Amino acid sequence: MKVSFTLNGDPITADVEPRTSLADLVRGEHRCTSVHLGCEHGVCGACTVLIDGKIARSCITLAVSLDGAMVTTLEGLADDALMARLREAFRTHHGLQCGYCTPGMLITAHDLIRRKGALAEAELRQGLAGNICRCTGYAGIVAAVAAAMDEHETTKSAASIAAE
Amino acid sequence: MAAPSAPPALAAIEAPRPGCIGDRVLRNEDARFLAGHGEYLADLDIPGTREIAFLRSPVAHARIRSIDMPPGAEGRVFLLKDLGDIHPVRAVLTTPGFRGSDYPALAADTVRFVGEPIAICLGATRAAAEDLAQEIVVDFDELPPVVEIEQALDPASPSLHGWPDNICFVSTPGGGEVDAAAKAAAVTVTREFRMARQCVVSLEGRGVLAYWDRRLQELVVYSSTQQPHVIRTVLAKLIGVPEHQLRVVAPDVGGGFGVKNNLQQEEVAIAALARRLKFPIRWVEDRREHLIASPQAREHRVRLTAHADARGKILGLEAEAVVNAGAYSIWPWSAAMEANMVAGILTGPYAIDAYKGRGVTVVSNKAPLGPYRGVGRPSACFTLERLVDEIAAKVGREPHELRIDNMVRPEQMPYRTVTGKLFDSGDYAESVRQVAAMIDVPAVRARQARQNGTGPRRIGLGFASYTEQTAHGTDEWIARGLTEVFGYETATVRFTPDGKLIIEAAIQNHGQGLETTLAQVAAQELGVDPADVVVRHGDTAVSPYGMGTFASRSMVMAGGAVGRASRQLGEKVKRIAAHLLQVKPADVTLANNCAVAGARSVPLKSVTDAAFLHPENLPAGEDPCLDETTTFQPLSGTGAFAYATHAVVVEVDTGTGLVEILDYAVAHDCGTMVNPMIVEGQVQGGVAQGIGNALLEESPYDSGGQPLASTFADYLVPGAPEVPTVRIAHLETPSPFTAYGIKGMGEGGAIAAPAAILNAVNDALRPLGVELNETPITPKRILTALHDARTERAR
Questions:
Q1: What pTM was estimated for this model as a whole?
Q2: What ipTM, to 2 d.p.?
């Protein structure tokens, strides 16, 4: 079956089997290998991507269902300012070890900050509950997301003050 | 004692310098992972690669009557007979009494667990390969399965491997006068403890890609493994390709924790097949395969008796540990590793002179058991530390004070335990004192008094202490009866002509931060910027021979090797620099990418330029080039012992059975810390896995031997809301036996958490007559225990 959608800003058309997942499609010929497969049944979150700006599990999303959609993987956020801040915070707070959960964790954190703004720690942890990390015990991840969140909020309020 | 290759001569660090040992250096490897540019096995892009799906046994125990191939199977489906002349894996201990068995790469006659591989199926995609696998029809003659420990111990059960029964090995460690201790004791406490079978759950599964390289005439095997050199050695023996024509590469590895620290049947089958094909083949383990067919962990039943005096001083211990090791013995550890370790370390950090232990390994129709973070230690710690709390309750003392009284004291170091381990250094009791202060025992007790009994939520406090044998060397592996002795580690340190440094190490880095910490060691010795140092590892073609990353050994062993090599290389750098500066070599120091002598200095780049490109500028008699290869063995063949005490406060909801962790503190000692940030990350990550062990993780089987947890909906691992941020205090007693005084510490966090949490939950529920001695303590188990206790009280 033919499907056309936008992947990281580029229009693509693919001829796929109905059973082909979005993850397999973008990892395969498009080499978006930041999309990691940790369970292939929608629990671990390592394959998290953005579909039309919302986070989604690419391992349980069928590629054929995406005609006309905008799909963004971590590769597509290379120049995004908030993602740059998150990457720096993950490094500073030792928010990664083996790196396998990291792309999915970054995309989830990016979404959380954009949608929710400032969050208490317990809410932040709930927001990350759909992404499994087996290495870090989450402390570094939570600290990193909190730091990026604070910085983002400060920048936003500075921008709104400047706008007034 | 085997003689170490040379004294380390690398003293503990007095004051950390920036970028060197002791500094919180941010990690070199982070940039590629944060960009999504990690290159894991499934990401390799080698033209013509065909994907593998394994046909695996759907039954626990059966003879294979026949296998019917579908149309089109020719050249796409491969059985054991199609792999050529290969040997089955035979993982044995050299210890007398060990019963060996063969583990074929693919099952041909008999299957012994659900998930055992039978055939390799190839397709352009994994989906196509799975379609093919589904069309193969296997006619099984089902045999009665042996599933649980009690069945495996029953002589009437069918024998899996043609032995008289299903007992693989019995060890009987111990010493001292236990009978005298029993007679002298005022208090004797006996309990039975169970730790459930677990899956390891690296977030990336296992995986193998292999092809024959026509130009180099070698078989290339990419594997998501923790020990590429060792895998090359054993693969060569099994499939008949000599080691110099075999290259094993571990690319980026998405977590290991022990499950990638074994020879895998899939590695053998794929390597054997690849040498007969003209194209690369790849298998990527999916989660279902990981949860049912990869090496699993734990499943212990331990009966422990302690004899103590009226104050709770432990006079003697008696233990029987039975471990269900599953269907086969895994190379190189053997099926007996778990039971032997549990029985061998049950005296913990305490000065206990009398001990009688028995470790029993049984086989069953479950997935084979392999190492998982902590190996036997989480179970040994859980067992002993639970019993210490019961002794404390019986003699009416605070559990942490009882621990302090029983511990090996600093003035007893080095201390030889009753089972022959040599504790090297430290103040064990101080870890209890520090963590007790951090958790604020009086405040927790006051809160308990206020809250417990007023509603459904009860507070509990739990402690657990342990020692962690790390970087064990030659003596230990010989004592354990391993067929290969993992006594050392190796590194090459080489400059490039433009003045940069490359470390080539035989370990494999999969989250431990070794691309940074080994660079810090080189920075310590050579004055280079660690951010500039390239650490290459995980590839038999890029480093000298070594053993890999496991048993909390890499920082001690590879760090020692890098330190020694850098120290030796530094001497040569100083000689050349002295010649260029016209000073004495003894007056030269290395710092900030320069060789410095008083007010004069020369950049390292000028030294490397002379060494590689201008031999005319070298001192008379000095050889060109700058590289050095050395090995390292710790001075004690039983390694360096890290230790810690954990303290945790929980709130147990007696209405729902849910356990919430309110506070978690750790006081630990891993000797000299190379990078405290990374140490804290390892402690925190280990505790998280220990929380899973205590509260969530279990791989149950039904009576037919079917594994019941095959997805993340059934097998629960902790998420961000379940794992608190752990408060950590560092004690730093350098080991006298290692370079810079480093002790390993990668497993420690996971060792004490199950014990500490179970102690806390029992502390909360003890007044209700509840005692829980089995992991994981799921809500169902807690509610059942509460119900039983109520029924008991009503009688």
A1: 0.97
A2: 0.97
